[in-house]
């Protein structure tokens, strides 16, 4: 979550258009991931048509999620973009039982409500007449797509190595977003490279690979709720690098989110028989 949480600051301040940033993020992430998979000797074989279809669908969803999330960051800023995307755990607690035909978990619904309360307190005030509204809508759309992607990963391809799956998803994103070379100036300026390298290595190659590995051990709802600590990291990174100090409402909202994360972590460990 520390590594994935870098996406807000890096994505907001990278000085290129959002689709261009996504193409380079995916391309650089793919290079790092391929090198790691080669070093570890991982295979890329897919067992059947169903798994191939799931990998393809997850790659398309990931590309849409990344682009819409970066537009949310560009239009609404780091706070609105990150907070909007983190409605996805609440969406997951509703979608997972509906799509997978499983019973609703009451504690997941209650914790999702606690997370939403924290996000509400974290969110800065904004005028619905300005572009922050569009940024919020992009963030909510990105959250929905991300939730669907995680469910696809959990049900069909959670047994794959996380780095191998991220190779496929990054590669598909490179192909799907390749038209940026026709519609935009796709060669980044020199000042953009530190941001793009950070997105490719820390956020994508390391962060998302570790995140995918979590699906082997926890449900999608549990993993999603645990990931709600990311806005806290995003805010802390903003304080360290850009001196964006949050107000008391943000501190209280963060406390609510951390409380939900702590409760879910304890319940998950007890469910797996992990001792104190």
Topology:
Blueprint: H1 7-13, H2 18-40, H3 49-85, H4 88-100, H5 106-122, H6 132-157, H7 162-176, H8 180-183, H9 193-213, H10 220-226, H11 230-242, H12 248-271
Report on this model:
The model has no long low-confidence stretch (mean pLDDT 81). Helix content is 75%, strand content 0%. It has one domain (4-271). The protein has helices at 7-13, 18-40, 49-85, 88-100, 106-122, 132-157, 162-176, 180-183, 193-213, 220-226, 230-242, 248-271. It is mostly helical. The chain is globular and about 45 Å long. Helix 1 (7-13) runs antiparallel to helix 9.
Fill in the keyword field for this structure:
single chain, 276 residues, mainly alpha, EamA_dom, DMT family transporter, transmembrane, transmembrane helix, EmrE-like
Binned strand content: under 5%
Q: Whole-number average pLDDT?
A: 81
Uncertain stretches of 5 or more adjacent residues: none
User: So what's the overall shape?
Assistant: globular
Instruction: Give the beta-strand count.
Output: 0
Largest sheet: none
Q: Please work out how many helical segments DSSP would assign.
A: 12
- What is the share of helical residues? over 70%
Q: Could you tell me the radius of gyration in angstroms?
A: 18 Å
Structure class: mainly alpha
Q: Secondary-structure element order, as H and E?
A: HHHHHHHHHHHH
InterPro entries: EamA_dom, EmrE-like
Organism: Neolewinella lacunae
Transmembrane segments: 22-41, 53-72, 78-99, 106-126, 132-152, 164-184, 196-218, 225-242, 248-269
Keywords: Membrane, Transmembrane, Transmembrane helix
């Amino acid at each position: 979550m520390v590594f994935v949480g870098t996406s807000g600051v890096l994505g907001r301040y990278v000085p290129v258009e959002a689709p261009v940033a996504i193409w380079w993020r995916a391309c650089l992430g793919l290079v790092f991931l391929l090198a790691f998979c080669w070093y570890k000797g991982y295979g890329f074989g897919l067992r059947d048509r169903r798994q191939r279809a799931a990998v393809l669908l997850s790659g398309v969803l990931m590309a849409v999620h990344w682009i819409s999330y970066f537009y949310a960051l560009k239009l609404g800023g780091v706070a609105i973009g990150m907070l909007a995307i983190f409605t996805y755990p609440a969406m997951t607690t509703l979608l997972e039982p509906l799509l997978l035909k499983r019973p609703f978990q009451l504690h997941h619904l209650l914790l999702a409500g606690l997370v939403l309360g924290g996000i509400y307190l974290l969110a800065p005030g904004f005028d619905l007449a300005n572009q922050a509204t569009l940024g919020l809508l992009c963030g909510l759309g990105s959250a929905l797509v991300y939730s669907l992607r995680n469910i696809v990963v959990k049900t069909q391809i959670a047994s794959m190595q996380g780095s191998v799956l991220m190779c496929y998803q990054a590669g598909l994103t490179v192909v799907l977003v390749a038209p940026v070379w026709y519609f935009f100036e796709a060669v980044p300026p020199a000042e953009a490279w530190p941001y793009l390298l950070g997105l490719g290595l820390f956020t994508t190659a390391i962060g998302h690979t570790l995140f995918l590995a979590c699906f082997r051990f926890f449900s999608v709802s549990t993993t999603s709720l645990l990931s709600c600590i990311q806005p806290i990291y995003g805010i802390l990174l903003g304080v360290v690098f850009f001196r964006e100090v949050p107000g008391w409402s943000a501190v209280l909202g963060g406390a609510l989110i951390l409380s939900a994360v702590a409760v879910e972590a304890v319940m998950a460990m007890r469910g797996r028989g992990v001792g104190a």
